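for the record, two folds in this file. i put them one after another cuz i was lazy. first one right below, seq on top, structure tokens after. the second one comes after a little note so u can tell where it starts
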Amino acid sequence: MSGFGAAQAAHFFCPGVLTAKRGLPAAEARACTPAPVAYLGQTSEEYEAEMTDYDYDLFVIGGGSGGVRAARIAATHGAQVGIAEEYRYGGTCVIRGCVPKKLFVYASKFSEEFEDAEGFGWSVGERTFSWQKLVAAKDQEITRLEGIYRRNLERTDVEVHDSRAVIEDAHTVRLLATGKTVTARYILIAVGASPNTDSGLPGVEHVITSNEAFHLAELPDRIVVAGGGYIAVEFAGIFNGLGVDTTLIYRGEEILRGFDGDLRTTVRQEMEKKGIRVILNETFSKIEKRADGTLAGHTKGGKVLEAGQIMFAIGRKPHTRDLGLEKAGVETDAMGAIKVNAASQTNVASIYAVGDVTNRANLTPVAIREGHAFADTVFGNKPWTVDHSLIATAVFSQPELGTVGLTQEEALLRTPNLDIYKSSFRPMKHTLSGRDEKMLMKMIVDADSQKVLGVHVVGPDAGELAQVLGITLQMGATKADFDRTIAVHPTAAEELVTMREPTEQLRG
């Protein structure tokens, strides 16, 4: 029952909030209603007074990964569920995020694969690339995935509404497509986040974001990507690999803030080797659109960056504007993110939120687990919360980055005694391809307990490695556990179990 107080725990005894619509008499359904809970100032009597007949046990606003998972699991627990989505089911990840972006990453890597093949005896003839064909294939796959999301909802008898939905009060939602209002015992907000732009920047109306990048009519000859996070870095690699003259401009001293320092430097250096121009400690002062349709980005440092497109990837903001949160009294932070407790419950007892809209850990698998935990807790008599402390992550940069656990900088805040194991080497493939590209593996170990605190990888399939490494660190692996594991040879990953001597010993 981690994350719950006694009052909250008393709320979740019912095996399912079943309604007469699910085949139970109304009296029996009410008998299976969750017990009243006093939450953030609301008394049990006040909450119980609100218990009445509703159109739904649960209404979900947002048809992304977190919202869909919550709706499906709640329905399998017996709840009568409705869900509303104003755009397409699948959310940011499926429609205009990680799925299409990964497809574009695959496409962009072929330019190097063709070059590398010659080192292995292949003669590759004339090569051409069709942006339009790639976009069409991507669109076909996204349509297929959206259909799966819809069918999965329908199979669990979730009532689907193709409409924007806004909150009217703690139990009421308005569907803007029809003007109809519906009521629900619980409301779950899972509307995600949207790309941020600098609204005060002159000429910002001329830039694109990741949303538009997936639907460009044609590839530009030159592009400037503003930002240093994973979205900016990934798109810089995509455009560069597809033959676009690419510049990345970032206000900070190094890209990928929040990741381990050695990885940040390695990724940036390898990007530069691939031909990406990286400009640090710079920002735009204005964007100018010229008569021929091209853009000129003027920087505060006096540079003029000319391009066919300028893309902003400077962060994302919770998509809470005009959602009606203030009508229900739902609290948000300065960014607009919805404040929730460990159980994803807001300050309004009947309203919950999961995913990027809460700005906890903005990753699709996290949103899915948060939605699942919510449904199990509220409707399934299986209370649990999501552990956000150890999340394996991949950045599909070029080269790829995979990471799990603490960075060296974070680990030093926990303990001054660290053993650092680090290895940089040329992947076996490039001994014949001739490509000047290095791989980096780094392990951070608590010198006193020998527990592995973090593992970080830059190189081919780093994301795949991060998933497996996430399991080992979740189990509390020590350096000795790695050492006694027999290597798989020849692989790059064997380096993880053959690094015997620390490259650096830090002692407080």
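(here's the note) second protein begins now
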Amino acid sequence: MAGFMRKHRVLTAIAAATLLILIGFGCFFYARVRHYRTHFFPGTIMSGVDVSELTAEEANDKVARFVADYLLTIDCREDQKYNITGPSIGYAYVPNGEIEQILAQQDAIDWIKQRKTQKKQDIRLDTTFDETLLEQELRNLPCMQEDQMTAPENAKIDWVDDGYQLVPEVMGTTLVFDQVLPAVTQAVRDGETELDLEAYYENPTVYSDDAALNTCMDTIEKYYGSSITYTFGKQEPYELTNEVIQSWLDVDDDYQVSVDDEKVTNFVQMMASAYNTYGDRREFKTSLGDTLQVGGGDYGWVIDKEKEKEQIYEDLAAGGHIEREPVYQQTAKKHGANDIGSTYVEIDYTNQHLWYYKNGELVIDTDIVSGNLSRNNGSPDGVFKIVYKQRNATLVGEGYSSPVNYFMPYAYNVGIHDASWRSKFGDQIYLTSGSHGCINVPPEIAKKLYDVLEIGTPVVTYYREKVYLTAENARISNAYSYISEDAYKELLKEDPTAVNPKPGKTRQ
């Protein structure tokens, strides 16, 4: 029985507590309902003014104070801020019972729901302002003056200082007034106190992160990292620097990179002019001890301009630093002023003698008979090279056919060969009874030369006097020993021995 009584007392207590809680909540709920019949819900905004928990009268006062002190701050680029005040645009609010009406329509019983959702109510009151004054104020702001606006600029790739660079975009400060005015007008209507104009600027259309721009710069950077060092034996190398390569680049409107072909062509031409030795005049110390200017012929370095261009393009495409020789069409024995080297054949037409040197040492020398000057068949002078060697050749020309055992041409069809039909060599035979242009040597000498001469061996040939030739040999030599027919006739008038004289110097 005692247990039953304890249980009954507990239940009675719980029921009493529950009743008290319900009564308490009911009282609190009723009090809140009564409160929100005369006060606005939390989160109630009227024309930019927070009237939460205010009565209608308090809300009228706060809105009136806000309107009287209204200030719209306009945020512009470059951290510029400008203000438009309420009085400057005739901003006003006249209480017309609108706030009271809004409060009367508020359902106080929904206060719990409003508390839970925290939903803001943004109510626009009937405020007034002069839109003409607003436009005028806006137009007068410094940020709206055209002479103070900076136009936007697209990011681009441009030549800056000494090379192409990616120039970032310029955002500029150009505002679009026709977009700004509606935005500012609406902000004033809504009672906003701050407005950022960022959305109303003219902006670039191409930015630094543009894919085409960056692909272009990647290509340029590859070219920037390129250089070619040309080697010329023991001569000072020549470097095609990346600065020069940069100056060759062109970037079109679509950011496609190309290499200016004309500039590459000009560079290769310049290098060929500087380093080609084909046909050059050379200072040559003769076997007789004097030094002559020997020019003409087809010996020397010749850069293959077309293939060199192709190689440059390949090198640029590969990128990086490359060290190499130019692409040659023709080579010589060595680089430098003396590209002949120390292994060569020397032929002195005036003294009718031939020398062959191997690594600077005299190996063979002999008297010769060269082309007949009286018949204008003088042998071509200049610097040539042994083109090939042939055994048992038959030399054929106008009015002759001569079989020889050893033939070593150096100037087209002009070469060194044995002349078994001759019993004498040297002296002045060439003046009246010389060859058709080839160099006649004794048979035993021809064999010795044939055995030791290598293809490509330089052949230095020269006259010590001016000679007049009209035969093919004169034309193919491209040398400097010849004079024109008119000059020849004038010289003969002045001095009959001036041209094609007797040898002026004998071998020592």
